[in-house]
């Protein structure tokens, strides 16, 4: 995966940023920044990379990220084809931990919000009623002309999110951002190669050569930075692609397994359950209920 870029937001006069994103595709750069980020996908599909988490995204995807947590919403390849005229849309909020003063969240009344902010350092996603509530609140905030009203709306939304129980963590408990300023972009080459060739028989020797390393050295390098082995990363990319095809409902499970790079249906079913915790059929039923 590409070496994450550290981004700093442009200075603004307001205490936080809320804006609508309308682009042909979402930002293709693997990056992080020192702000909290609440992001709702309104239109578009692809694969979401957050820390060591790899999952498909679709409209309604709602996540909350803590500071310096690397992330990327990689739009499907069709969104990069200008002739198709596809569009992605989303609503994003950025705010610093001290956007209301250095001691604001340290007050006793802010205990639940402070806990929410701590949880966000692992990345959070919501489903069900909470997601619908947050979606309505975010859309309302983009229409509020008064900055003070937006602050009240944000605090109210954070309060509702802090009380909700239909959430899950995105990254593993042991994940940390190990990015160093001196790192090269060899992970970018690996990331792009895997996304372009995951249906094929990927060779560790080819990938290691692409990164300019021996296979053993590359395996150690990759695991230290991705918090997972290279084979686990490839499997998660393949399963993420399979999830999108399953939700599309146009192909059989057998066709999807081969389209996603698995040579046998039994191996596909085994890895699908290991990664998602569900069988392909139960996965589809779960997401149709959300």
UniProtKB/TrEMBL annotation:
Source organism, top-level taxon: Bacteria
Keyword Cytoplasm: no
Pfam families to which the protein is assigned, alphabetical: AraC_binding, HTH_18
UniProt-listed Gene3D superfamilies: Homeodomain-like (1.10.10.60), Jelly Rolls (2.60.120.10)
One MF term in the entry's GO annotations: DNA-binding transcription factor activity
Keyword Phosphoprotein tagged: no
UniProt domain HTH araC/xylS-type: residue ranges: 188-286
Keyword terms: DNA-binding, Transcription, Transcription regulation
Protein's UniProt name: Helix-turn-helix transcriptional regulator
Species: Spirosoma terrae
């Amino acid at each position: 995966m590409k070496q994450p870029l550290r981004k700093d937001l442009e200075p603004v006069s307001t205490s936080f940023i809320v804006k609508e994103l309308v682009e042909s595709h979402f930002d293709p750069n693997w990056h992080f920044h020192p702000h909290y980020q609440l992001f709702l996908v309104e239109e578009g599909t692809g694969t979401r990379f957050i820390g060591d988490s790899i999952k498909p995204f679709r409209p309604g995807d709602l996540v909350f990220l803590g500071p310096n947590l690397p992330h990327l919403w990689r739009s499907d390849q069709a969104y990069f084809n200008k002739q198709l005229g596809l569009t992605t849309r989303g609503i994003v909020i950025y705010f610093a931990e001290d956007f209301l003063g250095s001691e604001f969240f340290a007050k006793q009344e802010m205990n639940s919000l402070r806990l929410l902010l701590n949880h966000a350092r692992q990345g959070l996603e919501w489903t069900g009623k909470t997601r619908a509530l947050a979606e309505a609140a975010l859309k309302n905030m983009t229409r509020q002309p008064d900055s003070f009203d937006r602050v009240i709306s944000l605090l109210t939304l954070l309060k509702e999110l802090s009380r909700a129980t239909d959430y899950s963590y995105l990254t593993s408990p042991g994940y940390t951002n190990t990015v160093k300023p001196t790192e090269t972009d060899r992970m970018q080459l690996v990331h792009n190669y895997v996304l372009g060739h995951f249906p094929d028989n990927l060779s560790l020797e080819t990938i290691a050569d692409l990164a300019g390393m021996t296979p053993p050295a590359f395996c150690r390098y990759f695991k230290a930075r991705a918090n997972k082995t290279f084979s686990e990363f490839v499997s998660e990319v393949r399963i993420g692609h399979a999830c999108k095809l399953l939700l599309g409902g146009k192909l059989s499970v057998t066709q999807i397994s081969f389209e996603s790079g698995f040579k046998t249906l039994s191996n596909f079913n085994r890895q699908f359950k290991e990664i998602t915790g569900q069988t392909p059929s139960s996965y589809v039923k779960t997401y149709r209920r959300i």
